[in-house]
Task: inverse folding
C-alpha cells in the first residue's frame, strides 16, 4: 500500500498562534469556534516543502511537479478536513508533537478520498516543520460503511421479523438479540447478552438448553431444541430454538445465527390431540368392557327366566295341573324378580341416552320425601328378607317440589346398592331438612369403598369392585347423580373399606324453573 509523505512549513501559522496568545487568548478551541474563518485562512499559510510520488498518485496529480506547483492545503480541504486541521492547530497550541486522525481530502481532480493522517513535529519548542504520512483508506471505509449498512438492514429486518433472532460469537456468547426477544421476555439488553438469555429459560430446561447449545458450538453444527421461555407476564411458553453456524470467507467459524419461535399454541394443539387420543383409547376400552358386562348382565336374568318358562310349559303340556299350581307362586316370584332386573338395566341405558343427549326433563310436584323413602323401602322388603338385610328407618315429613319419578329412581338406586354391598347387615334410611334444603341419607354396614374410588364411582360404567363379584352395568350412581344435579341438588359419600358407606343427598326444597324446563344438558 502506498504511503504518502510530505513536509510542511508552519512558520506563518506559528506566528499567528503566538499573536493570539499574546492578545490574551487562553482557550484556542473556543476561540476558533467563534472565528470559523480562521481555520481555512491558516490552511492557506501552510507551505508544502516536499512530497513523494505516492502523494502525487493519491492526489491524482500528473507528478510531483504538479503537486509542488499548485498544492495549497485550502485547495484540497473539505469541511470535514477543516475539523481535522482544527485539531492540528490545537496540538501546536498545546505543544504536542504527534497527532493521528482520520479525515477526507479532495484530490486535484475533485474526487473525495478517505485518509488516515499522522502528523509529527520534531520537538514542541517552536518547531515550524511538520512531517505528514498519509494512507488512502477509501476502500476500507467503503467496506466498513457497506458492512454497517448491511448490519443496519439485518437489524431492521430482524427487529420487524415475526420471530426472535439472535447472533453469537465463536465462544457462544450472544452478541445480538432482536427487538422481539426483549418485547417477549421483558429482559434488557444488559440482562440478555452473553449467556444472560438463559435466565429467561425455565429452570428445569435451562441446563439442558445450555448443554445442547455449547455442544453444538464446540462442533460447529446446526441444532434445534425446545424449551419453556418466560414471557414478560411471568408465564412460561413453549419455544423452539434453531440455529446454523456462520463461516467467514476462509471457512473460519464465526458463531451462530438462530431464531426462537413461540410454539405454545402448536404445543397445546399437540397436547390436546394426545389427550384426545388417550381419551379415545380409554373410551374404546370402556365401551368394550361395558359391552361385555352389559351382555353378561342382560343375559343373566334371561337365563333363569327362560328356564322357568320352559319348565312351566312342559308341566302344562304334560297335564300335571296340581304340580303346576304348587310351583307356580315360587316360579312367578323368580320370574318377576328377573323381569324387574331386566327392566332396571334397560331403564338405566335409556336414562344414560337421555342424559347424554341433554333430553332429560323434569316435572316438579309436591313430594313428601319421608313418605317416598318409606314407599321405596317397602318395595325392597322381599329382597331385604331374602338376603337377611334389615332396613331401619328414621323418616319424618319433609315436603318439597321435586320430580317424583327421578327422585324415586335415585332412592331406589342407592337402596339397591346398599342391600347389595351391605348384604347381611342393617341398612339405615334417614331424612331431615335445613332452612332451605332437604336431605336424606342411606347408610349400609358392608364392604365400604376405597378412597381412590370415591369420585370415580359416579362416572359412567365405573365401579369400586369387580363385576365378577357384584353385578350391574356401573350406571346406577351415574344416573343418580345426574338426576340429583338436574334438581339442583348434590350427592356425596363417606366411606372406608370394611366400614360401610353413607350416601347423602341434599336438595333445594323447590326445583328452579330453569332446571325443570331444561333438565340436564351434558
Result:
Amino acid at each position: 500500500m502506498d504511503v504518502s509523505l510530505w513536509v510542511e512549513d508552519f512558520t506563518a501559522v506559528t506566528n499567528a498562534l503566538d499573536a493570539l496568545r499574546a492578545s490574551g487568548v487562553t482557550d484556542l478551541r473556543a476561540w476558533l469556534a467563534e472565528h470559523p474563518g480562521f481555520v481555512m485562512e491558516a490552511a492557506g499559510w501552510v507551505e508544502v516543502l516536499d512530497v513523494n510520488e505516492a502523494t502525487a498518485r493519491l492526489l491524482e496529480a500528473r507528478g510531483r511537479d504538479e503537486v509542488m506547483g499548485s498544492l495549497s492545503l485550502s485547495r484540497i480541504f473539505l469541511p470535514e478536513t477543516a475539523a481535522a486541521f482544527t485539531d492540528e492547530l490545537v496540538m501546536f497550541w498545546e505543544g504536542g508533537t504527534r497527532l493521528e486522525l482520520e479525515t477526507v481530502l479532495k484530490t486535484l481532480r475533485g474526487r473525495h478520498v478517505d485518509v488516515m493522517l499522522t502528523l509529527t513535529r520534531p520537538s514542541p519548542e517552536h518547531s515550524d516543520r511538520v512531517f505528514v504520512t498519509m494512507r488512502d483508506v477509501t476502500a476500507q471505509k467503503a467496506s466498513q460503511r457497506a458492512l454497517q449498512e448491511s448490519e443496519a438492514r439485518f437489524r431492521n429486518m430482524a427487529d420487524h421479523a415475526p420471530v426472535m433472532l439472535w447472533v453469537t460469537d465463536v465462544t457462544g456468547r450472544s452478541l445480538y438479540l432482536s427487538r422481539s426477544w426483549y418485547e417477549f421476555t421483558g429482559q434488557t439488553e444488559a440482562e440478555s447478552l452473553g449467556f444472560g438469555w438463559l435466565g429467561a429459560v425455565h429452570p428445569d430446561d435451562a441446563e439442558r438448553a445450555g448443554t445442547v447449545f455449547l455442544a453444538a458450538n464446540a462442533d460447529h453444527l446446526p441444532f434445534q431444541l425446545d424449551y419453556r421461555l418466560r414471557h414478560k407476564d411471568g408465564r412460561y411458553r413453549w419455544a423452539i430454538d434453531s440455529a446454523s453456524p456462520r463461516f467467514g470467507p476462509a471457512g473460519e467459524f464465526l458463531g451462530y445465527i438462530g431464531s426462537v419461535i413461540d410454539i405454545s399454541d402448536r404445543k397445546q394443539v399437540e397436547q390436546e390431540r394426545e389427550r384426545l387420543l388417550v381419551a379415545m383409547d380409554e373410551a374404546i376400552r370402556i365401551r368394550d368392557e361395558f359391552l361385555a358386562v352389559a351382555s353378561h348382565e342382560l343375559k343373566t336374568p334371561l337365563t333363569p327366566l327362560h328356564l322357568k318358562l320352559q319348565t312351566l310349559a312342559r308341566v302344562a303340556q304334560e297335564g300335571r295341573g296340581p304340580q303346576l299350581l304348587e310351583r307356580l307362586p315360587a316360579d312367578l316370584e323368580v320370574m318377576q324378580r328377573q323381569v324387574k332386573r331386566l327392566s332396571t338395566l334397560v331403564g338405566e341405558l335409556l336414562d344414560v341416552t337421555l342424559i347424554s343427549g341433554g333430553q332429560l326433563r323434569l316435572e316438579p310436584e309436591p313430594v313428601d320425601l319421608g313418605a317416598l323413602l318409606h314407599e321405596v323401602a317397602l318395595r325392597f322388603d322381599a329382597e331385604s328378607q331374602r338376603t337377611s338385610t334389615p332396613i331401619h328407618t328414621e323418616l319424618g315429613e319433609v315436603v318439597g317440589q321435586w320430580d317424583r319419578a327421578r327422585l324415586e329412581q335415585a332412592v331406589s338406586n342407592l337402596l339397591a346398592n346398599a342391600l347389595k354391598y351391605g348384604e347381611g347387615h342393617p341398612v339405615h334410611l334417614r331424612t331431615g331438612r335445613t332452612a332451605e334444603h332437604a336431605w336424606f341419607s342411606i347408610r349400609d354396614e358392608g364392604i365400604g369403598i376405597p378412597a381412590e374410588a370415591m369420585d370415580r364411582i359416579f362416572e359412567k360404567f365405573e365401579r369400586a369392585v369387580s363385576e365378577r363379584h357384584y353385578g350391574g352395568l356401573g350406571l346406577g350412581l351415574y344416573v343418580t347423580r345426574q338426576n340429583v344435579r338436574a334438581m339442583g341438588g348434590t350427592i356425596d359419600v363417606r366411606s372406608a373399606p370394611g366400614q360401610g358407606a353413607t350416601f347423602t343427598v341434599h336438595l333445594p326444597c323447590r326445583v328452579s324453573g330453569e332446571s325443570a324446563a331444561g333438565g340436564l344438558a351434558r
Summary: The chain has a mean pLDDT of 82. The first strand starts at residue 4 and ends at 9.
